[in-house]
Automatic annotation (TrEMBL):
Organism: Cuscuta australis
Protein name: Protein kinase domain-containing protein
SMART domains, per database record: S_TKc (SM00220)
Topological relation to the membrane, as annotated: Single-pass type I membrane protein
InterPro entries in the record: Kinase-like_dom_sf, LRK10/LRL21-25-like, Prot_kinase_dom, Protein_kinase_ATP_BS, Ser/Thr_kinase_AS, WAK_GUB
Amino acid sequence: MIGNVVLWFFELTMILRAAEAMNNNGDCRETSCGGIAVKFPFRIVDRQPAAACGYPGFDLSCSSDRLLLELPNSVNLSVSFIDYASQSILVTDEACLPLRSNVSYSPFRSQYGMMDEVTLINCTVRTEAFLHEWSPSLELISCLSDPGGGGYQVFAIYGGTSVDDPRVQSCSMMYDLTTPLEIPGSFFLTWNEPNCSVCESQGKYCRVLQQQHRHFKSSKTECYHFPNQGIKKKVITGAVFGSVFLMAVLVSVCYKYTLVRAERKYQIKVKKFLDDYKSLKPTRFLFADLERITNQFRFELGKGAYGTVFKGKLSDEVIVAVKVLNDSKARGEEFINEVGTLARIHHANVVRLIGFCAEGFQRAIVYEYLPNDSLQRFISSADSKEQFLGWKSLERIAIGIAKGIEYLHRGCDERILHLDIKPHNVLLDHNLNPKITDFGLAKLCSTDQSLVSMTTARGTVGYMAPEVFSRNFGKVSYKSDVYSFGMLLLEMVSGRKIVDTEPNTEDKVNFPEWIYNVLEQGEDLRFDIEEENDVKIGKKLAIVGLSCIQWNPVDRPSMGIALQMLEGEVDDLSAPPNPFISKPPSSRNVIATANRICRRLDAIEEVEG
C-alpha cells in the first residue's frame, strides 16, 4: 500500500508538470517590453524560447525595458514602435551616422516619409565658430572628426544650403546623403514576409509551420486557434483537483485498510482466546440474539468509557445486563480482559458472566442483572436519608467487597488485579449483596508474583494508588487494589465523593484527611447515628480505610488482613498512622491541607500522563 501511495504522488507530480507544460510549452501569447506589445512574427528570445513563437530574423531582446532588434552582423537597433497592421517597425540607430546600419541581409527594408538632403563637409578648426554663426542647420559629426580637436572637423549641412559660399571655401565637400526628417537618428523598417493579415481576418493566430525548416527563406506560416484560456484553466484545475480527490480516496482506502488489518489481527486474537476458553462454557450469542434480548437496545442502564449497558431478558425469569463495547475503545483488549477474567471466577461477590458476543466488529458481554444499581447511587448524596443504607448494611457491603477482592488476589489459579475498584464498579443485588464488576482493566499474574508491569496508568483518578501514577512511590501490585478499596471505604463513611465542595465556598475538601482529623479529635463521623454500635461501625470502617491508603505500599495491609479487621471489633484496632505524610493539621487548616494533597495528586497525574 505504501508503494501505491508513492506511485500516486509520482503520478500527481507528472499531471502537474503536464498541466504546467500545457500552460507554457509553445506558449506564444503576446508579451511586452517597455510598453511595446510583442507578438508574432516577433519574439523576445529569453521569454519565448520556443522557435515557433517568432519568424526567423525577427528576434528581439529586452534589457532594462529597452526593446532591441537583433540584426545580422551584430547590429542592434532600439525599437520605439511596432505597427503590425502596416507591418512596419520604428527603430533608432544609435550609431554616429544615419542609415549606417546594414539591413540588406535581414527580412526588413528601409522606408521613409519626408526626406532631407544632407551634405558632409570637412573643415578646419578655425572655421567652426563662424560656421555655427552662419548656418544654424549645421551639425558636427563627432565620429568623423578629429577626436583630439586639433585637426579637421566634419559637419553636416541640412536644408540644401549651398557649399559654394566663400565662407566655406576652406572646407571640402565629402558626401551628399538622404536622411528622414521625422525623428533624428530614427527610421522605419518594413517587412513583407510573413504576412499574417489572412489569419487575423479569420480570427486566428499566425505561427511558423511546424514541419518546415527553420531558415527564414524557406519558412512558411500557418493559421491556428490559440487555446482558450478559460478552457485551459478548467483543464488544469480539473486535473489538479481530480488528482487531489483521487489521492484523498487512496489515503482513505489505505487508512481503512490499516484499520481492517488491525481489526483482523484482533479478530484472530479474540478467536484464539475463544478457542482457549471453550471449556469454561460461557454462552456465545449472535448479535441478532442480543438485539432480540434487549428489544433493540431500548432500555439503557448506564454508559462507561468502554461501552453502554442495556437491560435485557433471556426469558421471563432471567433478566440480564448486556454491555456493548465501543468500536473505538475495545480493540479486543477490553473484551479479552473482561471475558477471560470473569470466565474463570465463581464467587458470590463477583458479578457472574452469562455469555458474550464476538461477531465481526460487534462485541458484547452478558452479565447477571443486579436491580439495585451500583454502590455509588447510595453514597453520592450526603444529606439524603432515603439513600442512606444504614451502618450495618454498609458494614456488610464492605465485608462482601473485601471478600470479593481477596478471592481475586488469592482464590484463583492466577492472581487477578482489578485496578479499578470504586463504588461505580460495585453492583448490589436485591438483598444489597455487593458484586464486583467491570474487569476491563484487570491484570493477571501468577500467585507467587506480587508485582506487575504497566506501561500506562490504569484506573480512576481519586481511587488510583500513588504507584499507579508514578513508579517513584513503588511498583504496581495487589496492594494497589488495597489502596482503591481504602478510598471506597472512606467514601462510604463520609457519604460523599472523595473530593467534594463545601456549600457556598470554592475550597475543595479532601475527605480522607478530614476523616483522619475527626477520628484524631474524637468526633462523630456522621450525624445520622441511631445506635451506639453505629458509631463503632463507622469508626472501624474509617480505621480500616485509613490503613489501606498509606502512601507506601509496604505499609498497607493485604486484603486478607483488611478483611479480618472488618470482621473484628473496633476496640481491637489501633489507630492508623497519618497517611498524609505531613503533621496532623488543626481543625482550622484542614481545608488548606486538603487542597495541598489534591494539588499533589494532580501534579502526579500530570507527570505520568
